[in-house]
Design brief:
By secondary structure, the chain is an alpha/beta fold. It contains 5 helices and 7 strands. The protein is globular, with a radius of gyration of 16 Å.
């Protein structure tokens, strides 16, 4: 694989993607590279070695104290022009949904949206995001935010590492 051609799928779980190096804290499948992103970040990967990094339902599982470190490491590993796509719960959208639906009383669903599945230790939400906070985190690191959109109560943010 040539430098800069690698594509990473962080916190993949059972979402094994062809053409990606699938990474998760649990090795549910032999095609998964086991790596604890909260502890180790992306240290096994050299600078500017990936053209795309996907973190779907991932970053919220990292302690809010380590999120900036992880995002800086994503920036380090991406090549110039590389794309980073994250999907995280949108706390503003969750609040909007619950407040615009008076009487919404699904305790389990609300708890899941905010705190995660909690069916294994790493499946707990440790960080919360709104569109402005996600944008600022990425821009402060140096990313150019290309798109911010909602998928239900989640937000998807696509960003690019600009050339130097």
């Amino acid at each position: 694989m040539r430098v800069g051609s690698m594509r990473l799928n962080l916190c993949c779980g059972q979402d094994i993607r062809n053409g990606f190096l699938n990474i998760d804290v649990r090795r549910l499948d032999p095609r998964i590279l086991q790596l604890d992103l909260e502890r180790d970040l992306l240290t096994p990967f050299p600078p500017e070695s990936a053209e795309e990094i996907v973190a779907q339902d991932c970053v919220e599982h990292v302690s809010w104290r380590r999120v900036p470190d992880l995002l800086r490491d994503v920036y380090r590993v991406l090549r110039c022009g590389g794309i980073f796509v994250i999907r995280v719960p949108d706390l503003e959208e969750i609040a909007r949904f619950t407040f615009l639906n008076p009487g919404y009383d699904d305790f389990i669903q609300i708890s899941y949206w905010i705190f995660g599945g909690q069916d294994y230790p790493e499946n707990t939400h440790k960080a919360g995001f709104t569109k402005p906070s996600a944008r600022r985190l990425l821009e402060d690191i140096g990313f150019r935010v290309l798109e911010v959109r909602n998928e239900g109560t989640n937000m998807v943010v696509a960003a690019r590492k600009e050339g130097q």
